[in-house]
Specification:
Order of helices and strands: EHEEEHHEHEHHEHHEEHHHEEHHHHH
Keywords: Nucleotide-binding
Helix content: 40-55%
CATH class of the largest domain: Alpha Beta
Protein name: RHBT3 protein
CATH topology of the largest domain: Rossmann fold
Pfam families: Ras
GO molecular function: GTP binding; GTPase activity
CATH architecture of the largest domain: 3-Layer(aba) Sandwich
Strand content: 15-25%
Organism: Spizaetus tyrannus (black hawk-eagle)
Number of domains: 2
Number of strands: 11
CATH superfamily of the largest domain: P-loop containing nucleotide triphosphate hydrolases
């Protein structure tokens, strides 16, 4: 159900038509949503009639109860009844005539504070309806007309009252179909729907709470001890790869110059992860798999893999071990820069400027420097010099996505250890 309490008199004290219907009654009999209207006149304990009571149906089967209090001294004549009405109201309507400032001032000074005190819910919507056309249309300066203008309630006064109550302010210039049914009725019906939604929500919450109380409660378990907060350690991936190169741990490939005077050790899986040339060199791919003829040509002209038969046999009594693959670097200038090139590869193959600086310092010859850098570009198939840090990062991400160590995960290709799971 929806309970509406209306206070105030829309007729001014000088009105000639005392039989004009009230705002509430005009709405009830004109609205298409209202049906089965019953009305009665209630009196206080002293016998004075204080309000008219209307009962009707709205939205089909929702019970609507309206108490329309025309006299403002209801709080003085019957405080208990008026407090009960305001406390049980879902919507409060305050109405006054714009041409009766005395009644408005009495309402503002004496009865609005009482309405605030008697209202139990701060969320109860309040509608303030200023009714009638102000009698100030003729710009006459005679004392009588000036007196009439002073007796009118201005719009700003009504708006200020609405602010004090947190109310919705409406001006109804006449009690016709437009102002009563569409304007006032539209606002009133909006608050009716809001009230029904709120009551339905509260009813649902109460039902869930009741069901929860009747439900079998689970056993109360002791709270577990507070576990320590695990802090993630910073990644050592780059440093580990660098140490793997510097310490020559688990190396399975060794690069030599043609005179076999020096050796540089590395790891096949890391080299293959950055370059299809090394995949071809270590027989991970065949020449038919490599569509770029320049890669095949560079591999043959730059490197030569020595066959295992050329290696000396292991001494008697010592178990044979798999030695690193021996690769001869045919280009002596490139071979002298191989440690710097391997550091570049093991750091992610994106610090191109650093590689250029290292090779320039070592060779001190622009032609040789350009020659070595072109070989590196052909091996890694990089697009050339990367100018900005942003470009370096984006190229690194794209490069590692296409050819990275993840390609050799869970595959026997280049694997030197295999874990077997029992069962």
């Amino acid at each position: 159900s929806v309970n509406i309490v209306a206070f105030g008199n829309e007729r001014d004290s000088f009105s000639e038509d005392s039989q004009e219907p009230s705002l509430i009654w005009s709405y009830l009999r004109r609205s298409a949503l209202i049906s089965r209207i019953d009305s009665s006149l209630s009196a206080s304990h002293v016998g004075t009639p204080v309000f008219a009571e209307y009962q009707a149906c709205v939205f089909g089967n929702v019970r609507l109860v309206v108490h329309d209090c025309h006299i403002w001294d209801i709080f003085d004549s019957d405080w208990y009844t008026s407090r009960s009405l305001v406390g049980g109201a879902d919507i409060i309507v305050i109405k006054y005539s714009v041409n009766d400032k005395t009644s408005f001032q009495e309402l503002k000074d004496g009865y609005v504070p009482m309405i605030k005190q008697a209202s139990n819910h701060c969320s109860v919507p309040v509608i303030i309806s200023a009714i009638g056309a102000r009698k100030t249309g003729v710009s006459c300066t005679c004392p009588l007309c000036t007196s009439d203008r002073r007796s009118c309630v201005t719009t700003s006064e009504g708006v200020q009252l609405a602010k004090e109550l947190g109310a919705t302010y409406l001006e109804l210039h006449a009690l016709n179909d437009f102002y009563v049914q569409k304007y006032f009725g539209g606002v009133l019906e909006y608050f009716m729907i809001q009230t029904l939604n709120q009551k339905s929500s509260e009813k649902m919450k109460k039902r869930k709470k009741t069901q929860k109380c009747h439900r079998v409660q689970p056993p109360q378990l002791e709270q577990p001890e507070k576990m320590p907060i695990l802090k993630g350690e910073a990644s050592h991936y780059d440093a580990d790869l660098h140490n793997l190169l510097c310490c020559c741990q688990c190396a399975d490939v060794a690069f030599y110059p043609e005179d076999l005077s020096t050796v540089v050790e590395a790891h096949k899986v890391i080299l293959c992860s950055v370059s299809p040339l090394f995949m071809l060199l270590f027989e991970v791919k065949t020449p038919d798999d490599i569509r770029d003829a320049s890669i095949v040509q560079t591999a043959r002209s730059l490197f030569a893999v020595e066959p295992e038969d050329a290696l000396p046999p292991a001494p008697r009594g010592i178990p044979p071990c798999v030695p690193p693959v021996r690769v001869v670097v045919k280009d002596s200038v490139f071979c002298s820069c191989l440690p710097d090139i391997l550091r570049f590869i093991y750091s992610g193959a994106f610090q191109w400027e650093q590689l250029e600086e290292d090779i320039k310092k070592k060779l001190k010859d622009p032609e040789k420097t350009e020659h070595v850098l072109e070989k590196v570009k052909c091996i890694l198939k990089t697009p050339g010099k990367l100018n900005t840090v942003k470009d370096c990062r984006s190229h690194q991400i794209k490069h590692l996505y296409n050819t990275s160590l993840r390609l050799f995960f869970n595959t026997p290709v280049l694997a030197d250890v295999i874990f077997k799971i029992q069962g």
